[in-house]
């Protein structure tokens, strides 16, 4: 049996072969931000279960802000990866599908019992389907240039913030509409349908790629004012932003189809065969 367990003394001068390649830190940073957003989303679920609705909403808003940062940071650092894209989608499902649904159920949908729970399930499933469609589109053909400034349906972060509009209005002290649970159920289902629909909505990707120099200082001032207003008057600002976003959807729909018609017309004109040259003797 000695040959089975023969002593082996490796040569210290022999270089050790690395089994795994080192991962650059710049690739880890966007994923860490995504994980931080996921932790905040899970904390929002805890706050909702404990009945601390305001803190739960704050957590969802912060998670939405971080969700807007991680993707842009990954592209800026050239750290995009399939792992990061799938991790971001899983975090979005928890933060903007599960957390808002549970928050609404604890707040008012629970009054309708099973019907309210079905509405919460429908919203969470709509978020899952919307994110699955987004991931599938990553492997699809590249969209035209005009379509890159639009989302297909309401994105998950926007849907999560929009579906909480009844909570914002209640925090403002407005009287709840008759049959408050029924109104919340209908509104929750409507937002879920917007998420899985094919309605184009503004994405603002092109607007955020570059900014003219003369607009840099006003942008900083505007951002500071916006943050100050959000901190001082959170429910008023969230209500106005949500209503404004919903009012922009018809304009985005009309603008998208106008651009699509112009694009299709240019493609049709470019695909038509050019007429054969007429010989000089046959010209009129």
SSE inventory with pairings:
Blueprint: H1 25-49, H2 53-76, H3 82-107, H4 114-138, E1 150-152, H5 156-163, H6 165-171, H7 180-196, E2 200-202, H8 216-232, H9 234-271
Antiparallel strand pairs: 1-2
Helix pairs in contact: 1-2, 1-3, 2-3, 2-5, 3-4, 3-5, 4-7, 5-7, 6-9, 8-9
Brief overview:
By secondary structure, the protein is mostly helical.
Mind explaining what this structure looks like?
The chain is mainly alpha-helical. The protein has one domain: Four Helix Bundle (Hemerythrin (Met), subunit A) (Up-down Bundle), CATH 1.20.120. Helices cover 66% and strands 2% of the residues. It is built from 9 helices and 2 strands; from the N terminus they run ααααβαααβαα. It has helices at residues 25-49, 53-76, 82-107, 114-138, 156-163, 165-171, 180-196, 216-232, 234-271, and strands at residues 150-152, 200-202. It has a two-stranded antiparallel ribbon. The chain is globular. The model is unreliable at 272-284 (pLDDT under 50).
Could you tell me the CATH topology label: Four Helix Bundle (Hemerythrin (Met), subunit A)
How would you sum up the global shape? globular
- Assigned CATH superfamily: CDP-alcohol phosphotransferase transmembrane (TM) domain
Query: Can you list the strand order of the major beta sheet?
Result: 1-2
Q: What top-tier CATH class fits best? A: Mainly Alpha
Class from helix and strand fractions: mainly alpha
What is the β-strand count?
Answer: 2
Task: Summarize the main sheet.
Answer: 2 strands, antiparallel
Rounded Rg: 26 Å
The number of helical elements comes to 9
């Amino acid at each position: 049996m000695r040959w089975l367990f023969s002593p082996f003394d490796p040569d210290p001068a022999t270089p050790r072969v690395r089994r795994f390649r080192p991962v650059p830190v710049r690739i880890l940073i966007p994923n860490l931000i995504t994980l931080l957003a996921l932790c905040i989303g899970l904390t929002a679920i805890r706050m909702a279960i404990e009945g601390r609705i305001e803190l739960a909403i704050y957590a969802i808003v912060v998670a939405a802000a971080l969700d807007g940062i991680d993707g842009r940071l990954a592209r800026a650092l050239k750290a995009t990866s399939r792992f990061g894209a799938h991790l971001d989608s899983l975090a979005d499902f928890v933060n903007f599908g599960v957390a808002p649904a549970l928050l609404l159920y604890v707040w008012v949908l629970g009054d309708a019992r099973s019907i309210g729970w079905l509405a919460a399930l429908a919203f969470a499933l709509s978020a899952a389907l919307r994110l699955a469609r987004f991931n599938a589109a990553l492997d699809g053909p590249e969209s035209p240039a005009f379509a890159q400034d639009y989302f297909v349906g309401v994105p998950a972060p926007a849907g999560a913030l929009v579906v909480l509009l009844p909570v914002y209005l209640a925090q403002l002290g407005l009287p709840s509409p008759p049959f408050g649970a029924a109104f919340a159920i209908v509104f929750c289902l409507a937002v879920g349908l917007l998420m899985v629909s094919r309605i184009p909505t503004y994405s603002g990707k092109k607007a955020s790629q570059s900014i003219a120099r003369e607009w840099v200082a006003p942008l900083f001032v505007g951002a500071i004012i916006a943050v100050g207003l959000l901190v001082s008057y959170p429910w008023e600002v969230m209500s106005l932003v949500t209503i404004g976003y919903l009012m922009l959807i018809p304009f985005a729909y009309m603008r998208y189809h106008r651009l699509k018609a112009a694009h299709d017309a240019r493609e049709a004109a470019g695909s038509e065969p050019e007429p054969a040259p007429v010989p000089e003797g046959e010209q009129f």
